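Hi R.,

Quick one: here's the Right handed beta helix domain-containing protein sequence you asked about.
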Amino acid sequence: MPAYPLAYPLAYPLACAQAQLTRRRWLAAALAGSSVAAWAQARQVLQVGPRRALRSLAAAAQAAGDHCLIEVDAGEYRADVAYWPQNGLLLRAVGGRVQLKAEGAHIMGKGIFVTAGQNQRIEGFDFSGARVPDGNGAGIRMDRGSLQLRDCRFHGNQTGLLTNNEADARLSLEDCEFGPILPGQRHNHNLYVGRIAELRVIGCHLHHGHFGHLLKSRAAFTQLLYSRLSDEPEGRASYELEFPNGGRAWVMGNLIVQGAQTDNPALLAYGAEGQVWPENELILVHNTLIDRRASSGSFLQLKTQSGPAPVRVRLLNNLFAGPSRMVPARDWEASANGHAAWDDFVNASEGDYRLRPGSRWQGRAVDAGLAQAPSGPRLILRPERQFQAPHHSVALADDAGRSLSPGAFPLD
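And here's the predicted structure, written out as tokens:
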């Protein structure tokens, strides 16, 4: 098995001789790996709270060493900002949510937290109100290393989470929420990932952008699974999803909704600034893409000839709805994609984009095959989970004999 700096591999390695292993096994292993097992041998445990010896996160950051477990009592922590260079660090909320409110404070001119260690993990934290002079105040600024977030929320910041361009950095997000962005910002993004090795997003909700994108990733390898990217009626995001430097992008099981107030005629963009990575591939499988604008545009805006080799595009089992166009190019692998009408959904006007009983698209998905990850493991392109509000994913029923439907809700 290839080495992963983060606590779990999302794509479980499947040798050709073991192809019969189900995706339920590798995804169960992935989610199980998100436990605190990696910190079971922690050499140091610190407790933070108003009645503890350590009353602030800033103090804990000064006291913590490598492989430290920091348990933080639920409550509000105002103007409490910190730099975290430690390796093997686990920050965990205890007894409820930890609410970090910047209130004008920032660390290093970057945001509420700045992280720079390997194998770091944060659970149950809310980040709000980050402002800095250069306009890029982030709930978390990831300078380098590897970071895993679970059940964290980012709202009312200039930028939700921002990373540097570090070629070996890795970021994993599970059950997190990004939005709304702080009003008055121009071209700031809910989640902005620089040129890092890998981004993984599972069961997250990104919403209410403000002229910037909901998710912008320059990573060499991006996996976006079972999430919701939706600008909602009040939002004004540009692209919902952009990969400006190409790379390998796997997008499966997501609901992606472009709001009516956007200034951008496209929902997803790839390669607009030219490919910088040696391998470039866009896989869209079992997604539901909705355009709520009044005028026609394009669901996808792909620039696939700006690198040393053409980009491989695979477009399978997706549903599109709205006035925009979706015309696959001749060199794309495209099958079982459909343009749905509003009455194909349970209640599109209320944001319920599950297929209604009797829809013409029910049961019409095809076998999408496998995808090969850069480091060797394979992913069977059959969804095993689906997004659940507010920011989670749930396992699909184990019904091997039932045909799947296109879109993000294949069994509903």
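The longest strand covers residues 90-101.

Cheers,
M.
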